[in-house]
Write a structure and sequence with these properties.
Length: 342
């Protein structure tokens, strides 16, 4: 197969997706890499129908790569993830509206162009978590305890002003009390893996990043996110608050850290999606839309079946055991079993 990866400058030396690119090439697939932030691209010729089997984007929010991916989709090329799904999660304000409208547990979200405008939020909703609507990798996430601690107004035209180089829409959400540990759940084309790590809001809290069991409730929420947004490869940041799990971020093509054999699994998923197409925003949320992968862990189908069992009236029974993540041995010849052949 012939694939094109769009890789932002920020990820020039990042293991994900560079190791995936190397793995695909080792499996004898042709992979072209475009660096949208530092390349002159003759776009009218570079993006043509039939030029690649699929285009894959690994870029920062608001980066130039998304436009190129949309251009590829406009001439009928397959994109991983579906380009409409990516647009839906790259804008955190848009993602919050879509998720809440579908009943997903997302905090009340406020939007403003200037941080001082959040002073109008009732003081009872403080502390607030304030972050850029187009942020990524925890950039510029701030915990604001009280209205008087909001940043002072910025000068028009300054670097942090809405019309400046670092400006843009901001969102604010009431802080969800938690232990200082973030739960990160990854979906690799139908398989779910859970990890925990230190929250960026609590850097002093010592947390060893590791795989953890995935409960039925968190698995169901993660599966629903894939359905709502039409994502195949994605990650979800979840906090375990006093009222249950709360979604605080959604990322397309994340790092997949702590996923067992992440490079081989993600590479295989990219090939599968390139061959068979991605779900997209118009996908059915039924069982037929789930692409099963025969590699252990918790599947989206299992999460949905557990959700149906919980919803159905039944006699009291013992609670189901939590889903567990089970590392698998690395295959001896991954090229033959997963990725071989052009």
């Amino acid at each position: 197969m012939r694939l094109c990866f769009l890789v932002e400058e920020q990820y020039r030396h990042d293991g994900m997706p560079l190791e995936v690119i190397h793995q695909l090439r080792a499996w004898e697939h042709q992979v072209d890499v475009v660096w949208p932030g530092r390349s002159l691209i003759r776009i009218s010729e570079a993006i043509q129908a039939g030029s690649h089997d699929a285009w894959v984007l690994k870029t920062v929010s608001g980066g130039p790569g998304l436009t190129l991916l949309e251009a590829a989709a406009s001439v009928g090329l397959t994109t991983v993830n579906d380009v409409r799904a990516i647009r839906g999660v790259r804008d955190k304000a848009l993602a919050a509206v879509i998720a809440r409208s579908k009943g997903l547990p997302v905090p009340v979200t406020y939007a403003a162009a200037r941080p001082e405008e959040f002073a109008e939020i009732p003081e009872a909703e403080f502390p607030l978590v304030v972050k850029p609507a187009d942020g990524s990798s925890g950039r510029a996430v701030r915990l604001v305890a009280t209205p008087d601690r909001l940043p002072v107004p910025v000068a028009p035209g300054g670097p942090d002003a809405p019309d400046g180089p670092h400006g843009g829409l901001l969102i604010a959400q009431p802080y969800v009390p938690n232990s200082g540990t973030d739960l990160k759940v990854y979906s690799v084309a139908g398989e779910l893996y859970a990890t925990e790590r230190c929250s960026p809001l609590h850097p002093a809290h010592a947390v060893r990043e590791r795989q953890v069991p995935l409960t039925p409730e968190v698995a169901r929420i993660t599966a629903e996110i894939g359905d709502v947004f039409g994502l195949d490869l994605y990650g979800v940041d979840i906090l375990l608050g006093p009222d249950g799990p709360v979604i605080v971020d959604i990322n397309d093509f994340p790092s997949f850290r702590q996923v067992p054999d992440a490079v081989a699994r993600v590479s295989a998923a990219v090939l599968d999606l390139a061959r068979h197409g991605t779900r997209g925003r118009d996908a059915s949320v039924g069982e037929a839309s789930v692409r099963e992968v025969s590699v252990g862990a918790t599947s989206v189908r299992e999460a949905r079946e557990a959700s149906v069992r919980e919803a159905a009236p039944a006699a009291p029974a013992a609670p189901a055991a939590p889903f567990t993540v089970q590392p698998l041995p690395r295959p001896a010849r991954p090229a033959a079993s997963i990725g071989g052949g052009r």
